[in-house]
Amino acid sequence: MAAFERWVRLRLHEPIGIAEAARAVGVGERTLQRAVRRVLGVSPVRFVQVLRVEQATHLLRTTDLPVGVVARRVGYEHAATLRVLLRERTGATARALRGR
Fold first, then answer.
1. Are 8 and 48 within 8 A, CB to CB?
2. How far is it, in rounded angstroms, from Cα 78 to Cα 6?
3. Which pLDDT tens digit goes with each residue over 44-75?
4. 30, exposed or middle or buried, with CB in 10 Å at 0-12, 13-18, 19+?
5. Cβ-based neighbours of 79, under 8 Å, separated by 6 or more
6. Rounded Cα–Cα distance for residues 77 and 62 (Å)
7. End-to-end C-alpha distance for the chain, whole angstroms
8. How far apart are CA 27 and CA 23, in angstroms?
């Protein structure tokens, strides 16, 4: 799990494929899927979203970067996608996160 998390964190700004991630950490795709679900209780895709939202929240709180730039830095092409995920995961808007 630690190797998977490190690999993902280094590539948050890129499209992340689960098959590619599994190869990178030396396991099969199904093995990675099962391990992540067993240890974290979520799918690998959901875990990547969690890490991206975590990093985006950090950037919003600590920089003045526009939301579109933050979105691209954490792997989302569109700011709207990030805004939706922020509301779903944190219950806050990008603007509210900046003010905290």
1. yes
2. 24
3. 999 999 999 999 999 999 999 999 999 999 99
4. exposed
5. 66, 67, 68, 70, 71
6. 21
7. 31
8. 6
Tokens of 37: 């679900």
Residues 25, 3: contact at Cβ < 8 Å?
yes
71: tokens are 């979105």
For the chain, the average pLDDT equals: 95
**pTM (whole model) above 0.90:** yes
Mapping DSSP onto H, E and C, the string for 3-45 reads HHHHHHHHCCCCCCCHHHHHHHHCCCHHHHHHHHHHHHCCCHH
Predicted confidence at residue 99, as pLDDT, reads 75
